[in-house]
Amino acid sequence: MAQHDESGDPGLVARVLRGDKNAYEGLVRGHSQAVARIVSAHVPAGQVDELIQETFVRAYVSLAAYRGDSPFSHWLSVIAVRACHDFWRARYRSRETPHADLSEAGRAMVDNTAGEDDTPFDQGLYGHEASKLLTAALDRLSATDRMVLVLTCLEERSTAEAAALLGISRANVKIRAFRARKALRAMLETTISER
């Protein structure tokens, strides 16, 4: 199935570039689920539909830049990841305070779920609560550091792949991942020890 979708992409791209705007619908149909998976892994659920649309608008506008030296799906994935990255950068710029602390409910969750010993991720911290705590900690990182951690640690992508998706160097990915993991660990330990 994926092979059929890939073989049709160059023809659809060529038709769009010749002025057949309806051919773009075929590209959207063929890749909407893949874009949705990428976007839903990186932004809050309420923003997914908007970012999917943003991804396809960006792709349409820059379609002439697609050289065809890699599969269309890969080119579109880069656009989707960068749209998510831009979402977080815009969101962080528009914050009233640079780093929001955990809410009272978040602190109560830590109080109720952390174990008695000093281990930050004791067996009392599970599922939804752990996800909320991780999200709150990730929200304190810069947009790029957040994307680097999600891509390399949570999605287990290679340094090279993360660098290509974000448009930064491999060395920058490694440095950011190291620093972000260290900062994230410190934030989580501090939040749990404050209980």
Quick tags:
single chain; 195 residues; mainly alpha; Rna Polymerase Sigma Factor, Chain: A; Arc Repressor Mutant, subunit A; 2 domains; 9 helices; 70% helix; elongated; disordered N terminus
Q: Topology of this structure?
A:
Blueprint: H1 2-17, H2 23-40, H3 48-61, H4 72-93, H5 104-113, H6 127-138, H7 143-154, H8 159-166, H9 170-193
Helix pairs in contact: 1-2, 2-3, 2-4, 3-4, 4-7, 5-6, 7-8, 7-9, 8-9
Summary of the model, kept short:
The chain contains 9 helices and no strands. The chain is mostly helical and 195 residues long.
CATH architecture of the largest domain: Orthogonal Bundle
The average pLDDT value, as a whole number, equals 80
- N-to-C SSE series? HHHHHHHHH
Largest sheet: none
Structural class: mainly alpha
- Unreliable stretches covering 5 or more consecutive residues: 1-7, 96-125
The global form is elongated
Can you walk through the features of this model?
By secondary structure, the protein is mainly alpha-helical. It has 2 domains: 2-93, RNA polymerase sigma factor, region 2, helix turn helix motif (Rna Polymerase Sigma Factor, Chain: A, Orthogonal Bundle); 104-193, Arc Repressor Mutant, subunit A (Orthogonal Bundle). It is 70% helix and 0% strand. It contains 9 helices and no strands. Helix 4 packs across helix 7, helix 5 (104-113) packs across helix 6 and helix 7 packs antiparallel against helix 8. The model is unreliable at 1-7 and 96-125 (pLDDT under 50).
